[in-house]
Every structure is written in C-alpha cells, then in structure tokens.
C-alpha cells in the first residue's frame, strides 16, 4: 500500500473511530483527542501495519489505548452523567448505520457464504457483533466496553464510573442479554438456526 493510499484509508475510517471513542467517553473533545492521537500514531509508523488484519482492526487497537489514557486522565468526569439513567439508557443508542437501516434491516444483504467461506463468515459475524455492541444503551455499552474492550478490572471500572460492584454486574449482565438478543435477530434465524445458506460460526454461543 502506498503512503497516499494509507493516508486516505486512515482518514476514511476516522468517523468510525470517532464514533467508538464518543460512545465510550461521552465527551466530544476527549473523543476527538483520542482519535487524533490514534491517527497521528498510525501515520508516524505506517510500516507497523503489516496487513495481517483489517486496517480498521489495527487502528481500533491503537484507539483502545488512547481511550484508556483519556479515561485515566479525566477520571470520573468521563461517566459522571451516567449515574442517572438517560433516555438513551432506556431506549438504546442506534449507532448502527454501518449495517442496519432505521427499521433494523440489513442495508445490504450479507455476502454469499462461498469461498473463502470460514474467513468471510468470521468477518461478517464480527461486523454484526460490533454493531450490536454499538447498539447497547449508553451506560451498559460503556461499562461493557470498559470490561471487554478496554480490559479494565472491576475495581477500576467502579472507581471511574462511580457505580458499585453489584450494580456493575447487573449492567454487564443486561448488556450481554441485549447482545444475545441482537445476534439472534440479525445473525441467527428466529428458531436458533443459522441464516439460510450460512455455516454456523464458532462464535455462536450466547
């Protein structure tokens, strides 16, 4: 990949990176800082991208550390607004323009499950999983990402959010239930069978 093409692809992914950061940080300025630092880091060392994974996956890996830096820099300011449930927590955040329309249907049908088969299936599944995570209501989504994406431990999540451990476990449990429902709706057939023509992926367990 040439340097101009690398720059173009990084910039094209910037809106998606910003959405990830905003969903976690709930502050436009901090999210912008995290994404800007991610882009700068990527452009300073383009040779570090070996092409073994999708460029977006590589950039999100960098962004993860920048988001953690922002959370630790600003402390409990990050999620203080979430101590009171918002309308978003009740109804869910529809950050799903990547794959679904306003009615929850595919914008485009999934690609055919032909060759290379398993690899394509995994990529499609991960794309749906990513969108389902983005659909989680605000507080549930953020604590889930702090645990599963940022890999923070219970003590640090509680310290940063101001919730106690019991409430955190409730939020995580509800988040996982919502994820399972979303995957059943958008990946598996209602009866629990795979989408017609699809092989059951290894990540099917709910």
TrEMBL record:
Give UniProt keywords alphabetically. DNA-binding, Sigma factor, Transcription, Transcription regulation
**Single GO BP term:** DNA-templated transcription initiation
RNA polymerase sigma factor 70 region 4 type domain location: 129-179
Whether Cytoplasm counts among this entry's keywords is no
> In what residue span(s) does the RNA polymerase sigma-70 region domain sit?
10-76
SUPFAM superfamilies documented for this protein: Sigma2 domain of RNA polymerase sigma factors (SSF88946), Sigma3 and sigma4 domains of RNA polymerase sigma factors (SSF88659)
- What InterPro entries is this protein classified in? RNA_pol_sigma-24-rel, RNA_pol_sigma-70-like, RNA_pol_sigma-70_dom, RNA_pol_sigma70_r2, RNA_pol_sigma70_r4_t2, RNA_pol_sigma_r2, RNA_pol_sigma_r3/r4-like, WH-like_DNA-bd_sf
Q: Which GO terms describe its molecular function?
A: DNA binding; sigma factor activity
Q: Which family does it belong to?
A: Belongs to the sigma-70 factor family. ECF subfamily.
What name has this protein been given in UniProt? Answer: Sigma-70 family RNA polymerase sigma factor
């Amino acid at each position: 990949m040439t340097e101009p093409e690398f720059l173009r692809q990084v910039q094209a992914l910037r809106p998606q990176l910003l959405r990830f950061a905003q969903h976690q940080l709930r502050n436009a300025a901090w999210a912008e800082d995290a994404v800007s630092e991610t882009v700068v880091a990527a452009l300073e060392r383009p040779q570090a991208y070996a092409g073994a994974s999708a460029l977006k996956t590589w950039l999100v890996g960098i962004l993860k550390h920048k988001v953690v830096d922002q959370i630790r820099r600003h402390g409990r300011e990050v999620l203080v607004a979430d101590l009171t449930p918002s309308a978003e927590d009740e109804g869910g955040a529809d950050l799903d323009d990547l794959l679904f329309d306003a009615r929850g249907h595919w914008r485009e049908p999934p690609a055919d499950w032909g060759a290379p088969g398993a690899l394509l299936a995994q990529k499609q599944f991960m794309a749906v999983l990513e969108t389902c995570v983005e659909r989680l209501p605000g507080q549930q989504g953020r604590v889930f990402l702090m645990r599963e994406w940022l890999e923070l431990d219970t003590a640090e999540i509680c310290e940063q959010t101001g919730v106690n451990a019991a409430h955190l476990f409730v939020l995580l449990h509800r988040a996982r239930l919502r994820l399972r429902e979303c995957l059943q709706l958008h990946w598996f057939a209602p009866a629990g069978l795979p989408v017609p023509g699809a092989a059951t992926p290894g990540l099917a367990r709910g």
